[in-house]
Design a protein that fits this description.
Radius of gyration: 23 Å
Number of helices: 9
Strand content: 25-35%
Number of strands: 21
Largest sheet: 7 strands, mixed
Helix content: 10-25%
Structural class: alpha+beta
Shape: globular
Length: 413
């Protein structure tokens, strides 16, 4: 229904948080949340970077942007706005509320000097018009552990795996996570307070499974990996039919990783292991005896947007030498539109405006998709999303933009 009343967009004030948060919970269709969840969300919310849209006294829109740092190809960790808590009241759809928030937010991100913005999309169709594109993907699997075995690498038996209370080994697990962050594009360095998210364990979200459990892998007394999981006991006419649900796993070396997976495959009374949100190139796939019985599927996860094209492209390295002029179109952030000369190699890069003839033409959305190295420019060109204006430029740039490690965003926000 049309209305003549204008909405008002302002920065969120601390005293408005409870109503803001309740609006957000309703918009995402969630049930009642615990006091612990509410307090954790309040403690993590950056009020100066959060937005509230009102129609008169009614709250009709929310949005925010965490201060994150994301690993990019080459190992640099780049300031990144973690776009979050975006909602519009069902009563105010198609009235420009979301567009006004995205406009304000990207202007702010540019002013804050953060070259990248990233989000995980509850509805992927929404964010393309604002320049975001899927840049990381995740692997899900349902593994029949009653019939699938693992062939682990030499040295796995040297790793000790032991149970530990999740809270008691939190610091050691966070140290393991921190060691993995520089190794894979798309990963986020953990900011203070975020480690508490992994320990949230409301019974309402267990779906009949156990409380959160944890094991750590150790070598010579040092924690080299961890796995957090739940178990759900089940029975069939032929016997036990329980399920292990993996929540989180990280390890600093292949044998620690393999030891944790072997443990998960071998828990008594369990015949299935469900895996969610793992990297597409996760190593366990190359240890299993029968990949078909693992029922793998791939899904989009992290969406990336270049807020400052020049700074973002100069911050990463490139697999092979590249010297190419990009004609970039960015209708939503016009300061990015124009021609950019990208020169780079495995040691570093520069990206400056130029008047030289363009050699590739693409929008900022395609740059976001290819930025972390998980989506190739060649694939985007085959979809008609990238135009080659100089013969050979596409293959050169596509190879250079690649990453030897598949990008992954395990950090929820």
């Amino acid at each position: 229904m049309a209305t003549d009343r204008a909405t008002e967009l302002k920065v969120l004030r601390p005293e408005e948080f409870d109503g803001w948060w309740e609006h957000l919970v309703r918009a995402f269709g969630a049930g009642p949340a615990s006091a612990e969840e509410r307090e954790l969300d309040r403690s993590l919310t950056d009020f100066e970077r959060s937005l509230a849209v009102r129609d008169g006294s009614e709250l009709v829109g929310t949005g925010g942007a965490f201060r994150f740092r994301m690993t990019v190809p080459g190992g640099a960790v780049l300031p990144t706005a973690g776009v979050t808590m975006v909602s519009v009241a069902a009563t105010h759809r198609r009235r420009g509320v979301l567009t006004s928030m995205m406009r304000r937010q990207l202007d702010d991100v540019r002013e804050w000097g953060e070259p990248l913005a990233a989000l995980t999309a509850s509805e992927p169709a929404i964010y393309g018009r604002f320049g975001y594109a899927a840049a990381t993907f995740q692997l899900h699997a349902e593994i029949d552990t009653s019939r699938v075995t693992l062939d682990v690498p030499a040295g796995t038996d040297d790793i000790r795996v032991r149970y530990a209370a999740p809270a008691e080994v939190l610091a050691a697990c966070e140290a393991v996570y921190a060691r993995t962050v520089p190794l894979r594009p798309g990963m986020l360095a953990r900011q203070p307070g975020w480690e508490r998210v992994a320990l949230l364990d409301p019974e309402s979200e267990r779906d009949g499974a156990s409380a959160l459990q944890c094991v750590v892998a150790e070598r010579d007394g040092e924690v080299t990996g961890y796995a957090r999981f739940r178990t759900r006991l089940g029975w069939s006419p032929s016997g036990h039919d329980g399920t292990v649900a993996l929540e989180d796993l990280a390890a600093v070396d292949p044998v620690s990783d393999a030891a944790l997976w072997r443990f998960l495959f071998g828990i008594d009374l369990m015949s299935k292991l469900t895996v969610r949100g793992r990297p597409v190139d996760d190593a366990w796939q190359y240890l299993v005896s029968d990949i078909r019985r693992c029922l793998t599927r791939v899904q989009d996860k992290g969406y990336v947007r270049l807020v400052d094209v020049g700074a973002a492209l100069a911050a990463r390295t490139y697999q092979t030498p590249v010297d190419v002029v990009l004609a970039v179109e960015d209708a939503f952030c016009p300061w990015n539109t124009g021609r950019w000369r990208l020169t780079g190699d495995p040691k570093g890069a520069s990206c400056e405006r130029t008047t030289d003839p363009a050699e590739l033409a693409l929008s900022v959305r395609e740059l976001g998709a290819a930025y972390l190295g998980g989506v190739s420019l060649l694939s985007l060109a085959r979809a008609g999303r990238v135009a080659e204006l100089r013969p050979g430029a596409l293959a050169e740039a596509s190879t250079a933009f690649g990453s030897p490690v598949t990008p992954w965003l395990p950090h929820g926000f």
